[in-house]
């Protein structure tokens, strides 16, 4: 690309080789043809400003790239865009002990922030399986959720300040870490979950939580989906619940085959739950056991086990967190959807009917953050079917799945974002009026449509 010669970056901050274009030009989706034209690596906010102004002057589109763990195609370069990788902007800039806040660059790895918080006897609670490679900028741009939403909410709830570069090259400092700030529209929240279509995050101020007490992890076996929510209600109402995750026997078999782990329980069931609760005292542990035994007596649980060590707790979590990696060899077609928690039982009935009728001979594996109404659907590609045929067949059924979501006033994307994969289905969750307003907001921040164009809207 001839225009690259005018880009004010060092030579080592620009890559155009084929391997780099393919590596940085995609996310975890596997069915897009990547067509990036160059990769650039800013090292400062000033670099990002220069890149955006250069792109605007040359009418070149930009795609942001973090840890590339997204599943919606939002970080995929499909039309000759220049990819802006934030991996060199990975510093933890400052820590404020009084405010319990930390200022970071967007390329900081999620797990690195968690470890930093622990070193300060604090806690960063947004957590998910991709913690070791996802970056905070991407987490913010997709409003990442994960396994602790029941107790701690989403990424949005922990972002108290942002520095962003808009599509016109302006630098905005939003909220400045304030807890109270009643001065009109809070533009910070427009950028959280925006998937890079308004501008790029260059710094963030994140608040940290007090370190939680000792945690206990339980694994349950259940034979009825209806029991999943009954057990959830008991633990939510009577314990300090941190996480509540469901997966199927189908999912567990893939994990056991992939990892070689032993079965968590002697009982083989259709469904399992991993449940994490705070255990601050002997009395709290007695209460946990009382709730557990009550669920057994009511027939909602077939079997269960409680962790006796940190090592065992981590193993229990692997049965849930290793599902995606175990399924990856089958190139699954993924959907993540959400409804209000109270509507989960009715929604599951509708969804099960749609999937069983649509894919009678295909393997469909689902699991989810049942405690916050979020289900992940994985359709495994049958042997002998090409990628193109498989995706075409799956997208035919998307509409039926999303109609079931719409019936319950839910979301077609709980945490993976819209990107490219959900863009044409956005009307199942958002009204035409909302979409037009979103387009108008994008035009304000990105007048030349250079910031991740073609994504979301």
UniProtKB/TrEMBL annotation:
<dbReference type="InterPro" id="IPR036318">
    <property type="entry name" value="FAD-bd_PCMH-like_sf"/>
</dbReference>
<dbReference type="Pfam" id="PF01565">
    <property type="entry name" value="FAD_binding_4"/>
</dbReference>
<comment type="similarity">
    <text>Belongs to the FAD-binding oxidoreductase/transferase type 4 family.</text>
</comment>
<keyword id="KW-0274">FAD</keyword>
<dbReference type="InterPro" id="IPR016166">
    <property type="entry name" value="FAD-bd_PCMH"/>
</dbReference>
<dbReference type="InterPro" id="IPR016171">
    <property type="entry name" value="Vanillyl_alc_oxidase_C-sub2"/>
</dbReference>
<dbReference type="InterPro" id="IPR051264">
    <property type="entry name" value="FAD-oxidored/transferase_4"/>
</dbReference>
<dbReference type="GO" id="GO:0016491">
    <property type="term" value="F:oxidoreductase activity"/>
</dbReference>
<dbReference type="InterPro" id="IPR016164">
    <property type="entry name" value="FAD-linked_Oxase-like_C"/>
</dbReference>
<dbReference type="InterPro" id="IPR016169">
    <property type="entry name" value="FAD-bd_PCMH_sub2"/>
</dbReference>
<dbReference type="InterPro" id="IPR016167">
    <property type="entry name" value="FAD-bd_PCMH_sub1"/>
</dbReference>
<feature type="domain" description="FAD-binding PCMH-type">
    <location>
        <begin position="32"/>
        <end position="211"/>
    </location>
</feature>
<dbReference type="GO" id="GO:0022904">
    <property type="term" value="P:respiratory electron transport chain"/>
</dbReference>
<dbReference type="InterPro" id="IPR006094">
    <property type="entry name" value="Oxid_FAD_bind_N"/>
</dbReference>
<keyword id="KW-0285">Flavoprotein</keyword>
<dbReference type="GO" id="GO:0071949">
    <property type="term" value="F:FAD binding"/>
</dbReference>
<dbReference type="InterPro" id="IPR004113">
    <property type="entry name" value="FAD-bd_oxidored_4_C"/>
</dbReference>
<keyword id="KW-0560">Oxidoreductase</keyword>
<dbReference type="Pfam" id="PF02913">
    <property type="entry name" value="FAD-oxidase_C"/>
</dbReference>
<protein>
    <submittedName>
        <fullName>Oxidoreductase</fullName>
    </submittedName>
</protein>
């Amino acid at each position: 690309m001839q225009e690259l010669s005018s880009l004010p970056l060092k030579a080592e901050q620009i890559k155009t080789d084929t391997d780099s274009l393919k590596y940085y030009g995609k996310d975890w989706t596997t069915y897009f043809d990547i067509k990036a034209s160059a990769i650039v690596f800013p090292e400062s906010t000033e670099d990002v400003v220069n890149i955006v102004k250069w792109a605007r002057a040359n009418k070149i589109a930009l795609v942001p790239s973090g840890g590339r763990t997204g599943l919606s195609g939002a970080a995929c370069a499909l039309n000759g865009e220049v990819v802006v990788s934030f991996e060199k902007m990975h510093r933890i800039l400052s820590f404020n002990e009084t405010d319990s806040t930390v200022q970071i660059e967007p390329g900081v790895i999620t797990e690195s922030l968690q470890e930093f918080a622990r070193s300060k006897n604090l806690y960063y609670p947004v957590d998910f399986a991709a913690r070791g490679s996802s970056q905070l900028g991407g987490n913010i741009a997709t409003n990442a959720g994960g396994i602790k939403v029941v107790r701690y909410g989403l990424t949005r709830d922990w972002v108290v300040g942002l520095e962003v570069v808009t599509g016109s090259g302006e630098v905005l400092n939003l909220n400045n870490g304030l807890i109270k700030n009643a001065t009109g529209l809070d533009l910070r929240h427009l950028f959280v979950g925006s998937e890079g279509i308004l501008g790029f995050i260059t710094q963030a101020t994140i608040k940290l939580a007090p370190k939680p007490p000792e945690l206990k992890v339980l694994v349950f076996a259940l034979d009825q989906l209806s029991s999943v929510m009954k057990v959830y209600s008991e633990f939510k109402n009577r314990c300090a619940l941190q996480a509540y995750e469901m997966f199927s026997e189908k999912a567990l078999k893939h994990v056991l085959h992939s990892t070689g782990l032993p079965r968590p329980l002697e009982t083989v069931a259709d469904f399992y739950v991993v449940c994490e609760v705070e255990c601050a005292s002997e009395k709290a542990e007695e209460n946990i056991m009382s709730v557990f035994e009550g669920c057994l007596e009511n027939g909602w649980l077939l079997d269960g086990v409680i962790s006796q060590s940190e090592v065992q707790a981590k193993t229990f979590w692997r049965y849930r967190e290793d599902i995606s990696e175990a399924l990856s060899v089958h190139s699954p077609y993924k959907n993540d959807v959400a409804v209000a928690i109270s509507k989960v039982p009715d929604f599951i009935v509708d969804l099960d009917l749609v999937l069983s009728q649509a894919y009678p001979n295909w393997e469909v594996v689902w699991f989810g953050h049942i405690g916050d109404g979020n289900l992940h659907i994985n359709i495994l590609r049958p042997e002998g079917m090409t990628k193109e045929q498989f995706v075409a067949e799956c997208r035919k059924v998307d509409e039926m799945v999303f109609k079931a979501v719409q019936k319950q006033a839910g979301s077609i994307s709980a945490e993976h974002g819209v990107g490219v994969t959900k863009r044409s289905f956005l009307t199942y969750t958002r009204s035409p009026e909302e979409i037009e307003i979103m387009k108008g907001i994008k035009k304000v921040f990105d007048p030349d449509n250079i910031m991740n164009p073609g994504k979301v809207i």
